[in-house]
Structures are given as structure tokens and as C-alpha cells.
Amino acid sequence: MVCKTFKQKQKMRAACRAAATVLDRLCRIVGPGITTLDIDQEGKRLMDEFGVKSACHGYRAGSRTFPAYTCLSVNDEVVHGIGTKKCVLKEGDIISVDVCVVLDGHVGDNCRTVPVGSVAPDISRLLKVTEESMHRGIAQAVHGNRVGDVSNAVQRCVEGAGFAVITNFVGHGVGKSLHEEPQIPNYGKAGSGPVLKRGLTVAIEPMVNMRNKDISMASDGWTALTVDGMPSAHFEHTVMVDKDRPEILTVPEGQEMA
Ligand code: MF3
Ligand code: CO
Known about the structure:
Layout: H1 6-29, H2 36-50, E1 53-54, E2 60-61, E3 64-65, E4 71-74, E5 77-79, E6 94-103, E7 106-115, H3 121-139, H4 147-160, E8 164-165, E9 171-173, E10 180-184, E11 201-204, E12 207-209, E13 215-217, E14 224-226, E15 232-234, E16 237-240, E17 247-248
Antiparallel strand pairs: 1-6, 2-3, 4-6, 5-14, 6-7, 8-12, 9-10, 9-11, 11-16, 12-15, 13-14, 16-17
Helix pairs in contact: 1-2, 3-4
This protein binds 2-amino-4-trifluoromethylsulfanyl-butyric acid and cobalt (II) ion.
């Protein structure tokens, strides 16, 4: 969505702030012994408390609707994992917590991958590089640049560190609906693709594997898995394109920059 009015911008800011606050709270409860169902249920509770709805609950892809309130993907689960009481987190795991909410007809979408206790150094590097690649991409989201500038910045950061960018899933425009034009791949040529305009709101979300970018689908029809069984990381912010620098919208309540 291209926000043309101050009112639209304020609605996107509010939806994104709520999405970020829920995400931040959920990341704080991650630890050994908690189940992914516990985290999802806390997500639902927080959304009720903040007066927002999950944008993924009931989301339809083909004939299947997404059954949970958040996407929780552990270790070799890449994206769209479903919380379950069978999945008990343990020291050394990583979990991607992906939260998208609707407030007043506007959607905010964000994700972070966090360690459970302390994790192996190569996994910790995977998280750092994935987050860094997201910020490199975000820095390109300025008026007049092209989608390919964002994509290429992400790809160079990831591949420069020796990791593999996932190509099966991409970032996206986000606004009145969760997935809008344009698609924002995490790979591509600088200077290619649609031009970014001031006021456009997009979700920039690199998904990164250790070595092999390929994924397969679990039998639940939602969860994407790495084919090599190695862990995968995912970071995402919703940002608004602006003239000189992009505005990151998914900032938790109380953590706004001065
Ligand atoms: N942040 C995720 C995405 O953009 C949210 C997916 S919702 C789901 O793909 F229902 F598709 F899982
Ligand atoms: Co998204």
C-alpha cells in the first residue's frame, strides 16, 4: 500500500507497533521448557489485550487455512511453523517468532529468530548475519530506488558470509492486506524491478539457511523445512519507504527512537 495521507500512515504505524510489541513480549518468554503452543497461546492473549487480530489465523492458501495465531518455526523449520504442545524448547534450539496483526484494517508484520539459552557459535553467526542482511535491505528502501536494490543488498550480505538465501519465499508489500504487491525477493540484481515510492509499506524478510537454500514442505501443508536438516533463520520488519531514509514501523511500544 502507498500511504498517501497522514491518517493512513498513522494507522500503519499503530498496527505495526502492536505487531512489534506482541513479538517483543513473546521473544522474552522463550526459554528451555516452554512449548510452542504456550507461546502461540500467549500471542493470542496479547492480541486480545491490545485489541488486535492475528493476520495469519485463518489465512488461506489453497484449501488450507492457517490454524495458529503466530508462526513459530524451530531449528530446521524455515517458516509458517504451527505451535504444538509436543514441541518443548530446549537449550541450544533457535525459534523464529513471526507475528502479523490487523488493527483498524491495517496490517503489521514482523519476525525475529531468537536463541533458546546459548547456542552453537555457527548458529549464533547465522542469526547475526540474517538480521544484518535485513538491515542492509531496509537501508535501500528509499524513494527512487528499485526492489532489486533491496534484494541485492540482502543477497550480498548473506552470501558474503557464506550462507544461503532462500528463494522459495519472498518479502512483500503490506497494508490493507498481509500480502500485496510488490514482491521483495531476497536475491536479485541492483537497479532492477519496480521503483519504490515514498509512502509504500513493505515487509522486508530474509530467510537464510546455513548451506543449502532448498526447502521441503511438512505434511501439515504449512511448515517449510530445510532439506538438509540444518537450522534456518528469519528476520522481518515492516518499513515505510521515504525520501532520505526508510521508517521502520515495527518498533515495540516504548522503544521508539527519540
Ligand atoms: N510473516 C508471514 C508471511 O509474510 C506470515 C504468514 S501468515 C500464514 O508470510 F498464515 F501464511 F502463515
Ligand atoms: Co511477511
